[in-house]
Amino acid sequence: PVLDTEDAWVSVEGPVSIVELALEQKRIHYPLVEHQFVLCTVLYAIMRFSLKSVKPLSLFDSKGKNAFFKDLTSIQLLPSGDMDPNVLSIRQQFLLKVVSAAVQTLCSSQKDKEVSEEELFPFEKGKNWPTLAADLAQYLQISEDLVKRHYVCELYSYGMDHLGEE
């Protein structure tokens, strides 16, 4: 980008401006950032719903695990389209656990106190965990429809038929 500066600033001495420092930075490898985002979302879901016996790194193959410890500016080999069926099974189980835990948390709080979702998750306003799990399914190469069907089944099993119909 072209940065126009006024003549008065040309003769100024001092530390390098933050704009110039930003322009000198290496470009990040965006797919690697997305990969890190998936891990952060997985860790947050595990923490939020206190999911037991979930090993976050088991959701990734060896290439995916190695990519977590590399610089974001480096171009890394990320997992390809062909995945180990065992890893896919573990991913699917994880996403279904997240959906089940989200529905259980929402339904139990609404039955106890008639609390809205915004009050239950004050720092997560506008965050719909089942929808987030369906979005995460794309990154983890799991069928979104499978996650959505499980969500509807969970809603019906907890007596939330009006939401299940939607």
From TrEMBL:
Residue ranges occupied by any Rab3GAP regulatory subunit C-terminal domain in the UniProt entry: 1-166
InterPro entries to which the protein is assigned, alphabetical: RAB3GAP2_C (IPR029257)
Name of the protein in question: RBGPR protein
Gene that encodes the chain: Rab3gap2
Organism name: Neodrepanis coruscans (wattled asity)
Highest rank taxon of the organism: Eukaryota
